[in-house]
Amino acid sequence: TTLRGQSDVRSLAVSVDGKWLFSGSENQAIHVWNLQSGQEALNLPTLKVRALVVSADGKRLFSAQGEKTIQVWDLEAGKETLSLSGHADQVISSAVSVDGKRLFSGSRDQTIKVWDLEAGKEVTTLRGHTDAVISLAVSADGKRLFSASWDQTIKMWDLEAGKEIMTLRGHTERVTCLAVTVDAKRLFSGSQDSTIK
Question: What is the pTM of this model?
Answer without folding.
Answer: 0.93
